[in-house]
Each structure stands twice: as C-alpha cells, then as structure tokens.
Amino acid sequence: MTPQTIAYREALRQGLREALIRDDRVFLMGEDVGRYGGTYAVSHGLLEEFGESRIRDTPLSESTFTGAGIGAALNGMRPIVEIMTVNFSLLALDQIINNAATLRHMSGGQLSVPLVIRMTTGGGRQLAAQHSHSLEGWYAHIPGLRIVAPATHEDARGMLLAALEDPDPVLIFEHALLLGAEGTVEGEPHPMELDHAAIRREGGQVSLITYGGMLHKSLAAAEQLAAEGIDTEVLDLRTLRPLDDAAIMASVAKTHRLVVVDEGWRSGSLSAEIITRINEQAFFELDAPPVRVCSQEVPVPYAKHLEDAAIPQVEDIVAAVHRLMGGSGSGGAS
Amino acid sequence: MTPQTIAYREALRQGLREALIRDDRVFLMGEDVGRYGGTYAVSHGLLEEFGESRIRDTPLSESTFTGAGIGAALNGMRPIVEIMTVNFSLLALDQIINNAATLRHMSGGQLSVPLVIRMTTGGGRQLAAQHSHSLEGWYAHIPGLRIVAPATHEDARGMLLAALEDPDPVLIFEHALLLGAEGTVEGEPHPMELDHAAIRREGGQVSLITYGGMLHKSLAAAEQLAAEGIDTEVLDLRTLRPLDDAAIMASVAKTHRLVVVDEGWRSGSLSAEIITRINEQAFFELDAPPVRVCSQEVPVPYAKHLEDAAIPQVEDIVAAVHRLMGGSGSGGAS
Amino acid sequence: MNASPPREGPEASPAIGAAGLDDPARARALLWQMIRIRRFEEKCAELYSAGKIRGFLHLYIGEEAIAAGAMPALRDTDNVLATYREHGHALARGVPAGAIMAEMYGKQEGCSRGHGGSMHLFDASRRFVGGSAIVGGSLPLAVGFALADRLAGRDNVTVCFFGDGAVAEGEFHESLNLATLWQLPVLFLCENNRYAMGTALERHQSQVDLAAKAAAYRLPSESVDGMDVVAVSRATEAAIDQVRGGQGPMFLEYRTYRFRAHSMFDPEHYRDKAEVEQWKQRCPVETFARDAVACGLLEASVRDEIEREVAEEIDAAVAFAEAGTWEPVEHLCRDVYAREARP
Amino acid sequence: MNASPPREGPEASPAIGAAGLDDPARARALLWQMIRIRRFEEKCAELYSAGKIRGFLHLYIGEEAIAAGAMPALRDTDNVLATYREHGHALARGVPAGAIMAEMYGKQEGCSRGHGGSMHLFDASRRFVGGSAIVGGSLPLAVGFALADRLAGRDNVTVCFFGDGAVAEGEFHESLNLATLWQLPVLFLCENNRYAMGTALERHQSQVDLAAKAAAYRLPSESVDGMDVVAVSRATEAAIDQVRGGQGPMFLEYRTYRFRAHSMFDPEHYRDKAEVEQWKQRCPVETFARDAVACGLLEASVRDEIEREVAEEIDAAVAFAEAGTWEPVEHLCRDVYAREARP
Ligand SMILES: Cc1ncc(C[n+]2csc(CCOP(=O)(O)OP(=O)(O)O)c2C)c(N)n1
Ligand SMILES: Cc1ncc(C[n+]2csc(CCOP(=O)(O)OP(=O)(O)O)c2C)c(N)n1
Ligand SMILES: [Mg+2]
Ligand SMILES: [Mg+2]
Q: Could you state, in order of their start, the residue ranges of all structural domains in chain B?
C-alpha cells in the first residue's frame, strides 16, 4: 500500500471511523460532534454514517457529559467523549480527577473506566486567553490518567485505537494548529501503542525533548541547526503520563545536552518534571544545565505579535540551543 | 506584649476577625461558614459578631459562589471566599483560571480582582482519595494567581491580611492537619507580607525546601538529623507563586545540597519546578543531584498504614537526606 | 405524576403506613432491614468512639425507611449509585455487613480493600457504585450508566441517591436535563433531610419544593413521605416500573430527616433540639413496628426476634472486620492503573 | 409576571412594533443604534475576509433589537456583562466604535489593549465587562456584581446577557438559585436564538420554554419578542425598574435568531436556508424602519440620514484602528499582576 497524504484532521477522522466500525461499544459524544460536523470538522460525516445513537450531540454541560462518559464506561461501553477544547475541560475537572482517575484504586480495583476523552489544545490562532490553554502537561500530574499527545498523522489516527483498548481513562490532546497540516499515513488504520516515546530525528550533540504541536517547531529548529552543523536529536514523548523515562535517559546519555520544548506556561510545566527526572536518573550525564523553552507566564493575548511572543517559536528553540552549546552554564529559560 | 499560645484554627479566626473589623468591604462567603460555624470551626462565632450580611452561608455551588466572589471583587468589595476544601475547588476551576487569573491581563489592565480564596488542603486524616488532595503546587502553574501556604501561626493569622491588601487574586491553602496544632502569635493581628520565603531553621550542610503541612515534618526531620550531626537548613517557601528564587538560591549556595519536601504527587509537583529553577540558576552550586520527597502517585487511600505510606513522613525526609549525604549520586525520589 | 406542595414540618402525610401492606413476610423484611441498618450504624458510632473507624462517618439514622423501602424494587442487573451517607444503601443492596465493616476498619477484606472507608463502599458484583464524597458527583455517572444500558438494549434501571444539598449543584441541573432530553432509564432519588450540613433547605434553595423544581425539566416527579417505609416502597416500585418501561427518567423526593449530626465532627449549632425531637416521633422503625403490630400484620414478638438476628449479624461483621488483615504496604500503588505503569 | 408558552416559528407576537412608540427622537435613536450595529458588523465580516481581524468572530446580525432596545434602560452606574457575541452590546453601551475596531485589529488603542479581540471587549469606565468566551461563565460574575452593589447600599442593577446554550450549563442553575435566594439586583437576559452553535434548542433543552424553566427558581420571568425593538425596550425597562426597586432578580427571554453563521468557520450544515430566510422576513431593522415610517413616526428620509452618519462613524473607526499601534512586545507580561511580580 502506498502512503496517503491527508490532513491531521482527516487522520483523526479515520481513527474515529475505524473505532466505530471495530467495536459496537464505541460511541462519540460531545458538543456539536454530529449535526454541526465537529467544531473543527473532525467528525464531519460520521453522523450520517453511524447515526444518532452513536454520534451524540450533547447540550453545553461539560461536567455532566464527561461524567456520563465515565458512567457508560463503568457500565460496559467504550465511550469517546469530545470536549471541544481543553479550555472548557476545566468545567469537567472534578469528574476527570475525582471520578475517572480515582475509581479503580478507590474501589480496591473493582471498577474500571475505559474512557477516552479527546480535546484540542494549544494556542496560535489568535483566540485569546480563554481559548488558548496548553494544559496537557498540567493534566499529567494526576495519577490514574493516561495523557497522550499525537503529533504525527499516524499517531493522530492510531493512538485513539490504542486508547480504546486501554482499560483506564486516556486523555488525547490534539493540537489545534496541526488540524489542517498535511502528512502521511500508511495502510489501514491500526492501533499505535501508547507506551513509548519516539525519536523523530536522530542526532548526537543535543536533544530536543518535546511533544504535540511543538514537535514540528522542534524539527524545524533542528533543520536550521543542522545547517549550522549542530547535530540535533528530536524526541517526541507521545505519551505525557506515564513518561518514557528510558527513552529520555537514553537520549541524554547520548547527547549530554538537552532542551525541553513545551507549550505549557514555564512554572510547573511538564518540562520541569522532565528536567527533574534527568537530575534524578542521569545527573552525571549532563554536560550543561538543561534548558527549557516554554510559554511566557501570561494569559495568551489576542494580538498576533503578542501571541507569537507568548508561545515558543522556532527561533526561541534555536536560540536556546545556541545558549546551551555556547556553554555559558547559566541557561535561563525562555 | 507576651506571645499567645493558640491553635492554628484560632490564628486563622483572629485573622478573619481583624480583616472584618478593618475594612467594611470585606465579607466571608462559603458553605457552612455561618450557622454551622465552619466545617473546621475556623469561622465559629463570626456570624454572631458580624451578622448575616458579612458572614454568608452559600448553597452547594462552588463554581457560582467563587464566580460571585470574583464579580464582587470587580465591583469594589474585598470578598473572602472559603471553598471548604481544595477537593471541591475543582468545581470552581473554570472561574479561578478563566476569570480570576485572566481578567486583568485580558482587559488590558483595566480590571482588578482583589479576591481572597481560602481552602483547606492535604491528607493525613483518613478521608480517602476524594478528600485528601494537595493541589496547591498544581495551582501554582497558573499566571495571574498568587498562591500562599501559611505554615506558622503568625502566617495563618497575618497572610490573610496581606492577601486582602493585594490587588490580585490570592489563594490561601490551609493544611487540614495543622488546624488543631498549637503555636504562638505576638501582639495584635497584622499583615504578614507575601513576597518572601523564610528560613525556619538555619543550617549549613543541607537544605530542606518545603511549605505548609510539610514544614513541621521537615523541622522534625532536621531535629533528628541534628542529633546525628547533620546541620540542616529548613526553608519555608510561604508563597508558592511567585516563588522566592533568591531565597532558594541563597540556601543552595550555602549548603550545596537540597531536598524538596512537598505533599503533592511526585510527577509534575512543585518540587520539580524548584529543582529545575536551581538547574537554571544555580546548577554549578550543586554538589549532588537534588532529591525530592513527595506523595506516592496514588489516590490517597483510607487505611491508615496505606495513607501514611502515600504521604511523606519524617522518616522519608530523614532517609532522603541520608541518601543525599551518602552521596551515591543517584538519589531516587521517595 | 406531579409535584405536591412542600410540607414544612415533620407531620405525616395522609398515612399509608403498615396498614397499606398485607404480606407479613414483606412487613417483616422491611422492619428487619430498617433495624439492621439502625443497629449497624449505632455500632459504627461506638466503634468510631473506640478509634476503630476513622475519617468521616455520616450516619443514616432516621432515614432508614428509604434504603429499606426502595432497594427491594430493584433487580440484580440494575445499578445503584449513592453518596458518602451510604451504609444503609449498601446493606439494603446486599453488600455483606462484614465486608462493609471491614472496609470501615481499613482492612483488605473490606468491600473496597480498605481504600475507601465509610464514604466509598463499592461492590461491583452487586452493581453498587456506592460511595461518592463529592456532592452531586454521582449524578452524571448515573446518566452514563443508564445511557450504556439503553445503547446495549438492556432494560435495566439506574437509581441514584443524593441529598437536598446536591440539588443546588450545577450537575443536578445538567444531569436532569440530559437524562430527560435523551429519555434515559434513570431514577433520581433525592433524600431531602432538610439540611445540607448546617444549611437548612430554605437557606440553600430558592424553590424548596424539590419535586416542583425537578418538574421544570419536564420529567415526572413526585414527593413521598420518607419516614414511611411502605410509602417509599410503593412509590419507588411504581417509579421503577415506569422507568423500566422506557418512559424516560423520573425524580422522587423522599421527605426525611437525619436524627444524628451530619458527621462525627458536627456540633449541631444550626438546629434546635426540639426540632430533632419532634421528628424522632416519626422514627421510621418505631412507627412501622408499632403500626404493623397494631394492625395485626406482625406478632409483637417479631421485634425481639429481629433484634436478635441483627445483633448476631453485626457481631459477626465486627468479628470479621477484627480478623481482617492489612494490605501490604508494598501494594500501595497497585490498581492505580490496570496495566502496570510507571508514572 | 409569568411564563408564556413557547413560540415555535418566526411569527411575530401580537405586535407592539413602532406603533407602540410616540417619541420620534426615541424611534430615531433605536433605528440608528440597530443600523449602526448592523453596518459595523458587516464591516467586521469584510475586514475578517481581508485578514485584518483574526481569531473567532461571532456576528450579532439579526439580533440587534436586543442590545439596541435594552441598553438605553440602564444608568451609567449599572453593570453590563455579556458574551463573545458582544459587539452590539458594546456599541449600545457607548464603548466607542473606534476602540472596538482597534481591539479587533489587536492594536493597543483597542478597548482591551489588543489583548482580547472580538470576544473580549471591556470598558471599565462604562462598567462594561463585556467579553466572556466561556459559555455561562459570566453569570456567577453578574451575581457577584449585584451582591457588591447590595452590600454597599447602591441601587444599581447588573444585567447579564447570555445565549440559550448557556441555560444548559450548571452555572445557570447555580446563579439563578443564588441570586433568587439572596434577592440580588441582577437581571438575567437570555438571547434565545434557538441554536447553540449547531445544536437546536429542542436538542439541548428538555424544557424549551426558557421562561418557564427560569420560573422554577421562583424569580419573575418573561418572554419577549426579540425581533421587536420596542417590545424589547418596554420589557427591559419594566424589568430594570422592578429589579432596581429591590424586588430581587428577574429573568427575561428574548426570542430571536441569528441570520449569520455561528462564527466565521461555521458551514451551517445544521439548519435549512429556508428557515433562515423565513426569519429574515422579521429583520428587526427593516420591520422597525418600515413600521416607523408607515405610522408616521419617522420621515422616510431618516433612513438615509442614519446610513450616512453610521457609514461615517464606521469609516472613522476603521481609520482609527488602522492608525493604531502595536503594543511593544516587551510589555507582554505587564498586567498579569498589578504588583510587578516574578512568576
Ligand atoms: C462538592 C462538595 N462540596 C462540599 C462538600 C462538603 N459536604 C459534604 S456533605 C455536605 C452536605 C450535603 O448535603 P445533602 O446533599 O443534603 O446530603 P446529606 O448530607 O444531608 O445527606 C457538604 C457541604 C462535598 N463533599 N462536596
Ligand atoms: C463552556 C464552553 N463550552 C463550549 C464552548 C464553545 N462554544 C462557543 S459558543 C457555543 C454555543 C453557545 O450558544 P448560545 O449560548 O446559545 O449562544 P449563541 O452563540 O447562540 O449566541 C459553544 C458551544 C464555549 N465557548 N464554552
Ligand atoms: Mg441533606
Ligand atoms: Mg444561541
């Protein structure tokens, strides 16, 4: 089979379609997933193909339709809940943390919540502070949740299928800026495992550790750096909880220098967790203090030049690598 | 004036009382703060003294009474919203993040939200998974919020007064296990500033960086370590956002070894942020990889022996220091 | 079915009572279940004082007619969701008393392996998703349980117990709307004991007639005397039949009262002793026992028999809990995920 | 005041219309405001296509009678909260068109310094806390604004505009309960345009009569023809008087329709063109202009006059926005906190 070139949104839709075909227990529920065709047109056409009982438009009530997904999962179904964007998921956090993440352990292992929650995440489209959060790294703090961030088209299509096979709640964060991007997938839709990070570019001098929307900026930065003769490895975490420590440490053991690139606000970001784990597990591999490139600590503003300045850009990544390779040793954060 | 010995809960009450006396714009609002006397008896007697219009019992509706606090603050009042415990604050997160933290910047600096939100936090009372969260470090990820954690009786009494003078939203986390603990306060209630960490015990060989409920366990550990001849400094962060980097770096520059003690779940905890900042600002001061003592990554269980094992204990802190001083160099996390 | 006007005091509604029953075996079973719950909880209070039970403990004493009257109307395949005040529901649903008691001791023989305690009783085999300690948090779950049954074509009913306090939470609103919109087989069961902790109904609801409030979602709703086990039983049976028949969700308000404090920490500043005493006159156990004997449905001796049976069962439950074992600390992080996972 | 039965189609209610007015100056002002909003937004759509405005843009076209009719009833000291579909409200409240346009350009001369864009228009000096992009998120704020006025002894009213979709959110429920319980001076103004994005009213509300739904909280509620600027104006004035009088909160439903897509990205799969066309027959601008002339309240020439004035104002607004400047990037993190703070 020859590879297909499709938009990320189309890869997501192929995954959803395959999931609905494979397993009768799967259904999709959320605001405007049906009649409207999905806010970002991801689920367009699925209502016509699978009908109202499996493609369910909900009222505006994030807490309750998320909780209903948990209940349906407890009662034998394999629901896919779409929360339109991560920004609105704050309304459903009680259900996600106090129920989805907790019920298995709190019940002594009796209950299982095989639920998938999908949401778009990230900034970059001038939607301002209430519509530009990147909270996937923040969600990764919660035991009981599995957090994934498909950055490639294969992952966009296949991580959903793997997530549906997982007996625990999986949150899938789809970066809004990727939706229209073209990429390739091969063969029929198939599950893409959730356990391992993936090296997207091999390199020997410095590691860029990243995920989701920032993968592509990191790859672009690596290209530029290659032109300057800096041989950069790019590691795509894929799953943010649990982290693939082995892959992180292996990359660090190879390059001894790293930059974490993460769209979350700097303080308390996932990047801090990664750097701390490296301190714990590979401290003496480090040739220089690790550096992170994160979002500025500001509610993301509307104006394009301000938004661009708030969110990590390719130049910021390149500059961070320069700082790191310059070896000043006091690499400040972006 | 001679110092008074009072319970932490009484120190909190003195602060509340003083706030209500000082400023007519101050009122207290939350579930059962009035008739019931406060779930933890903190506000007991205030209804009788200040009346119903200033001590307001609310229905169970965390999102709305928190949002109403934001609205009242925008409209000239100085509300104190009590969310009974951090566990229920998840229901109010949208208001806290998308409104309280965001409105000043998003309005171009026009709006101000001088709101104080108080809540109890932490485990240790066998209340199980849904009632034992320690999420203050997680809240510290959010720009626009000020996060404080009074660990001493003076701070319990006085940080509220300083918080009310702050033009921005301040979240005060009061550790449930401290409520009954006795301690001293001096003189009349007065504001305790929010900007600086405090050294609670001077030492030269290792720094314990901590806050809130863990301060007392850290001090107890330092006592034990002193008996063994290990000279331990204990730094109380007091404010978790913004962090007092200068105080942290100064302590590290003095001792060159540190353990962060934090009741949050390990991954993505505040401890990771602190260790990462030290990497960024004082990497070459480190004589050994920093170590953290955090909660195990599990919803906190009910049974006492399991709960004790889930939450950092004095022995865990002592053991971490031993590991660090042993200098194995691969200090794993507790 | 429509909303009836609110009753302000503890007076009984035009009585159904024991007189409405004609089956002695059923009368005995109802009385037995109420006494069993009462004595079990009195034992819990005792064990709490003795330090054997810890954490929060919320007693159901005074409200037993609800769990005892409602639960027999359910099938094994139906689903039950409840709150942190759920000992009575667990017992009535058939969760063994020993497993409940062991849970409160924190032993691994407990119905939640000691992870949950009093507020989190679970028994998947009995479809009892009992314990939720976030007020209102189980309503959305109930909607989801019902949705799953509907999608799978099973004619099960999901019942969800919650308090008057939960009615103020947004999830109540969202859940009633969604269940009604989708016509799901869920029965919302509000145990209106007139207080949310220390906040009286009229201080937390602008509309104190909760059945009328529910009716605004266009689902059938009704109020029942929750101190009368026969009235509870009848109303719940009828509602379950209707919901099982595919007529969409329903709402029942049980008007009741808790005789004890909210939890073991509550000093009860907020209500008069006299009010409590007045309601105690309507104790569901005593009124039903008295009426059942008076109308010849039960022999006077049955009461003692039941007390003996129950005492034995509770002694055995305590012994079971005492003999239980502590889960090894090394197992602490098991069951966070089904697949073994690094964090 | 009580709930009236829902109207299913776009037919007018027993008309008030221009005939209900006798003041030509007022008629002119109403027409002017509606046309101003209409033309302003048409310009926005044009500028969006030209790439001058970015992000989300939600047009109010079709609903102008509401902002135009309601806002004059307010005092300067009253508070106005709205949603992301708030250009009309901002204009009617007196926020200068130039400041709004500059905001949409992202210029620092914008009413939110370019930080907010179309969805977040603010003007503290006019007590306009316009833009909230979280559906339902401003209802609790409105309750708090009203509480502050009450506590401070000021007789201001707070009005809060929101859509039919917001009625499904938990915060609607909690806010109506709290405002009614505490009898706060807040007026809830629901712009029911029959769709929440692509989800029709009857597919998101089990009770489609929203005034009846609100009445369940025991606050006075009423439905108004939102396509009739005079009806809007009358009902809103009466409601504001009543709320200001200290009679507690009120709820008004304006029945309206949006003529355009939900946002610039909406392909409108979910509704028939015929439905839209039918509603356009009731265009608030055209019907009012026609009636006002027909009944002799306005000269036919007034329409052209207004169009000229408005075109001038909008040209000036665009020029102001074009001439606006970009906030220096170095100021990015200012105004996160009032006190300069390290993170
Ligand atoms: C969301 C949330 N807020 C607050 C609490 C604290 N709390 C526990 S029980 C309770 C009162 C609940 O009252 P009600 O629903 O009437 O049930 P009852 O206790 O009377 O059975 C409160 C406020 C909680 N557990 N969850
Ligand atoms: C909490 C939340 N959920 C979802 C959205 C996405 N969204 C934006 S507008 C909208 C529809 C709102 O409909 P309605 O309240 O009727 O207002 P209208 O747009 O019709 O004026 C939705 C679902 C949001 N902004 N906030
Ligand atoms: Mg109650
Ligand atoms: Mg609408």
A: 4-185, 198-324
From chain C, the residues in CB contact with B41 under 8 A are 267
Which chains reach chain A with 3 or more Cβ–Cβ distances below 8 angstroms? B, C, D
User: Is residue A199's pLDDT more than 90?
Assistant: yes
Cβ separation C144–A79 shorter than 8 A: yes
Asked if B131 is an active-site residue, the reply is yes
Ligand 2 atom with the shortest distance to the CA of D192? 16
Mutation for C interface: D207, D217, D251, most C CBs within 10 A: D207
**ipTM reported for the complex, 2 dp:** 0.97
The answer, yes or no, to whether any atom of ligand 2 lies below 6 A from the CB of A127, is no
Mean pLDDT (whole number) for A91-105? 98
Give the closest residue (by CA) to ligand 2 atom 13: D196
Query: Fold identical between A4-185 and A198-324?
Result: yes
* pLDDT tens sequence across A212-228: 999 999 999 999 999 99
Residue D229 above 90 pLDDT? Answer: yes
As beta bridge partners, residue A260 has A209, A292
d(CA D166, CA D280): 24
The rounded distance, in Å, linking the Cα atoms of C91 and A43 is: 45
Give the distance (Å) from ligand 4 centre to CA of residue D256: 9
Helical H segments across chain C, by residue range: 24-49, 64-70, 87-93, 97-105, 138-152, 170-181, 201-204, 210-215, 229-244, 273-280, 284-294, 302-323
Flag if D174 and C181 touch (Cβ within 8 Å).
no
pLDDT of residue C128: 98
What gap in Å lies between CA B293 and CA B311, rounded to an integer? 9
Is A4-185 a CATH 3.40.1180.10 domain?
no
Ligand 2 pocket check for D193: Cβ under 6 Å: yes
Residues of D in contact with C177 (CB under 8 A): 168, 205-206
CB of residue D166 inside a 6 A radius of ligand 2: yes
CB A1 within 8 A of CB A36: no
User: Are C132 and A99 inside 8 Å of each other by CB?
Assistant: yes
> Which protein residue has the closest C-alpha to ligand 2 atom 17?
D163
pLDDT over threshold 90, residue B70:
yes
Domains of chain C: 21-315 (3.40.50.970)
Contact residues, chain B, for C137 at CB < 8 Å: 130
Average confidence score pLDDT of chain B: 96
Q: pLDDT band at residue C20, thresholds of 50, 70 and 90? A: confident
**Residue pair D79/D142 in contact by the 8 Å Cβ criterion:** yes
Residue identified by tokens 């030290």 is B278
**3-class DSSP assignment, residue A201:** strand
Q: Which among A130, A266, A298 has CB closest to D133?
A: A130
Q: Are B280 and A332 in contact (CB under 8 A)?
A: yes
Instruction: State residue D77's pLDDT score.
Output: 98
pLDDT per residue over C69-121, tens digit each? Answer: 999 999 999 999 999 999 999 999 999 999 999 999 999 999 999 999 999 99
CB count in 10 Å sphere of residue C135: 26
Q: Which atom of ligand 2 is nearest to the CA of A130?
A: 25
CA atoms of A327 and A332, how far apart (whole Å): 12
Residue A252 has pLDDT above 80, yes or no: yes
Query: Nearest-CA distance from C9 to chain B in Å?
Result: 20
State if residue A82 touches ligand 2 by the CB under 6 angstroms criterion.
no
C61 burial type by CB count under 10 A (0-12 exposed, 13-18 middle, 19+ buried): buried
Q: Regarding the domain delimited by B198-324, which CATH topology (the fold level of the hierarchy) does it fall under?
A: Rossmann fold (3.40.50)
Which amino acid, residue A108?
G
pLDDT, tens only, D27-44: 999 999 999 999 999 999
**Nearest atom (ligand 1) to Cα of C163:** 15
Show residues of chain D in contact with C212, CB under 8 Å. Answer: 216
